[in-house]
Amino acid sequence: MIISRLILKNWKNFKELNVPLRDRAFIVGPNASGKSNLLDVFRFLRDIAKPGGGLQKAVTDRGGITKIRCLAARNFPDVEIEIHMSEFSSEEIIWKYAVGIKQETRGYRLPYLTYEKVWKGNKLILNRPDKDDKNDEERLSQTHLEQINANKEFRDINKFLESTIYLHLVPQLLKYPQSFTGPDLSDDPFGKGFLERVSKVNDRTRKAWLKKIELALKIAVPQFKEFYYTEENGHPHLEAVYEHWRPKAGKQQEDQFSDGTLRLIGLLWSLQEGDSLLLLEEPELSLNGAIVAKIPSIIYKLQKPKKRQIIVTSHSTDLLNDKGISLDEIILLELSPEGTIAKTASSIPEIKAMMDGGMTPGFAILPRTKPKNINQLTIAF
Ligand SMILES: Nc1ncnc2c1ncn2[C@@H]1O[C@H](COP(=O)(O)OP(=O)(O)O)[C@@H](O)[C@H]1O
Ligand SMILES: [Mg+2]
Fold it and tell me: What is the pTM of this model?
């Protein structure tokens, strides 16, 4: 299943948003245009749907409704989220889920639902507030999405959302997990528990996945020869052998790998692991442009057999210069005084014209993602 459309009102820097999403989607925009905020909608829905989650926790974890609601909105309106779901490579809607959230005006100022709706195809199968909600308003502090005994009719939506994976690997966290104290995040987005995750996969599968990563690293990393999993005093490690003039001198463990090598390993592992919605935050970071240019086709190749949706944020021209990317797959974010505006690149005539003139998506879009007065940046100092 995929999320084939996202509709938002008053979500962070999006006062309004309504965009179609494909099997593979690239969210592109200048710094601080809301790329991460957009991915956070899917993480928010996951946080509501997952076991031990729920609406109250998902809102509290984000600092309350006042942090979530768009600052450009007036009169404290609802935050609204709607998603449409379809089969992979299809636009036919099989599910719709919509929710409106507000904050109590008095007391503890807790979030509550103004509505929650589910459609199966075009048929409305949940429409809250219902009679029970009107008799007991406290029920509106929880969604049916988070309640096993209330979501039987639309369990598919719950299962899909709760298994969403977000990856934004921070090499330093993976290398030195013990140096970063504080609670571990349950979904481990930054790779602190990455090695643990690798250790939990059964031997055969792990070997097969690492073998593929080894093949990729042999191409991408100079002098890279061998790559495998090992344990030392019960602790999991990744080890690589580099070609070296001194035999045995070329062995290295993950804390010596380059940031780019580690990010590539994390990316290739996550693409092979699981088949749920995968959110990739700027996969181009620390990687050479020639490697970045291959990421879209690797994604395509690995997502297709699994029928898995992958949504990527990026501001890399290299990544978008893949000729296989269609303009329908690109969501462009542009800043305006009334919040960020999101459009599919295919709906912008200038970009279409540039593409028809033989340009790649990256070059057609680049002028729109750099700050307007960029030349004045040096003058500031
Ligand atoms: N509730 C909100 N209302 C309006 N803008 C917000 C809100 N929360 C965050 N922002 C703005 O969103 C921007 C950050 O967006 P982010 O998704 O991190 O950008 P990107 O990932 O594209 O660099 C910041 O400029 C921040 O001020
Ligand atoms: Mg960001």
Answer: 0.95
- R_g of the chain, CA atoms, integer Å: 22
Ligand 1 center–CA 342 separation, angstroms? 14
Cβ of 168 below 6 Å from ligand 1: no
Mutate which of 37, 280, 314 to test ligand 1's pocket (most atoms within 8 Å of Cβ)?
A: 37
112 residue type, one letter: Y
Highest mean pLDDT among 111-125, 175-189, 352-366: 111-125
pLDDT of residue 249: 66
Handedness of CA 51, 35, 364, 169 (dihedral sign): negative
Alpha carbon distance 381, 126 (integer Å):
57
Centroid of ligand 1 to alpha carbon of 139 (angstroms):
31
Percent residues over pLDDT 70 in the chain: 98
- pLDDT at 188 (0 to 100): 78
Does residue 184 surpass a pLDDT of 80? no
Considering every ligand atom shown, identify the ligand nearest to the alpha carbon of residue 336 and give its number: 1
